[in-house]
Specification:
Helix content: 25-40%
Low-confidence stretches: none
Number of domains: 3
CATH topology of the largest domain: Dihydrodipicolinate Reductase, domain 2
Bound molecules: NADP nicotinamide-adenine-dinucleotide phosphate, L-homoserine
Distance between the termini: 55 Å
Radius of gyration: 24 Å
Largest sheet: 7 strands, mixed
Length: 430
Amino acid sequence: MTSNVKTVNVALCGAGIVGGGVCQIIKERQEVFKTLGIQFNIKTILVRNVSKKRDFELPAGAKLTDNVEDIFSDDSIDLIVEVMGGLGAAKTVVFGGLKAKKSVVTANKALISYHLNEIEELVNTFSKDGSRFAFEAAVGGGIPVIKSLQRDIIGADDVMQVSGILNGTTNYMLTKMDQTGCSYEAALKEAQDLGFAEADPTADVEGHDARSKISLLCRLTLGVWIKDEDISCTGISTLTADDFEYAKILRSKIKLLGICKKVNNGTGAEIYVSPVIVPISNTISSTNGATNIVEVRSKYLGTTYYVGAGAGRFPTATSIVGDMLEISLNKSPKPFPLKQNLTQHTDYPGRFYIRINIRDATGIIRTVGAICENEGVSIHSVLQIPITDKQNVPFVITTDETLASKVKVVVDSLEKQPWCLKRPVALPFL
Ligand code: NAP
Ligand code: HSE
């Protein structure tokens, strides 16, 4: 039986949270892989610091190196697994690997969303030589959403909209703020203490991680690549405990969503990342803690949900090992099966929640009403939790259907008022 087993030589680039999980799963499941006709030999492991103590068992016989040339100079390497992160050395490894006609698996959504066209060109050029590219772990960690879309949805169906909680750290924080009424700062500290949020949490809390992920989902499902810098992105760092109190009054939760959808009879694409007011009747609202969810609305299938662990050692490593197996068995789907010529719409319609922190005075509601009227924004409701501190009153209006651009003008104008304490926070309703 072993004679029919193909040995696949692997260079594992990165031996941190995800890399450690890959090593352990391969060790534990090698016998199962053999029944499929594959065995993985982790030949080289690229790290920054070769003397660092690892929190997992290094594969027997693997060479630990900090020199990327050890990978490129070894012709016997079949498959490169990039789990380093970042745009520097990871780019060298992914681009160099594809150019060397090797297959590449990566979890690096930032790298792919930033260099999508170049990666696609390399993949197209070198796929005829047998090199493959897979990135299941880049969106939704362990949730098998990328391959489901590549294989089962795109092509057979016409995807109209994708919305998702794409970042576990921020969903953990938002859930805490909702359930305990704690401040943003307290939720962040807890997420850091538990190892969800990094010491520098910017990529998560400012929505950049979710932005890279929705950019990839948009390229996959709508067939159009919209660069990270062209995607409107609002994070969660301006939210306060008051927003969660108001959300309860509105029978809603606040979730950081990445959304892309077809607009204008399928000729345009709209994409953004923002905290969104989600009614509790919507499935997305009950996705709590570090869990991720992706909702896909398509013409023939209707609505489907992909839910599960969006991060963590083993969930993410499962996606990586799944990609390694499919590539080795020659079964991996085309990375970007669809290309469409859609025009990006930077403005989007919706109903909005606007929180204005004011120093109490008479006539404020009249002025807020006049500012909205000037912009043609119709007020749907006016909400005010009874005042406890006249020097800082969080006061909320919700709007009828309008445009994000009009809401921005309203917010700019409110911010200039003498009683307005800080820039008002505007969130769309789902
Ligand atoms: P991590 O724990 O920080 O590990 C990174 C590894 O890469 C470390 O072993 C580090 O070496 C190595 N490395 C970093 N820069 C390097 C360089 N310039 N040269 C050589 N080696 C370098 O990161 P991670 O959490 O495993 O994440 C890896 C990737 O997976 C990222 O793209 C991340 O976005 C993605 N991802 C992670 C998760 C998750 O739950 N963690 C989920 C989904 C996707 P040293 O150990 O020697 O420092
Ligand atoms: N930092 C990400 C999250 C995991 O919190 O979901 C990596 O994609």
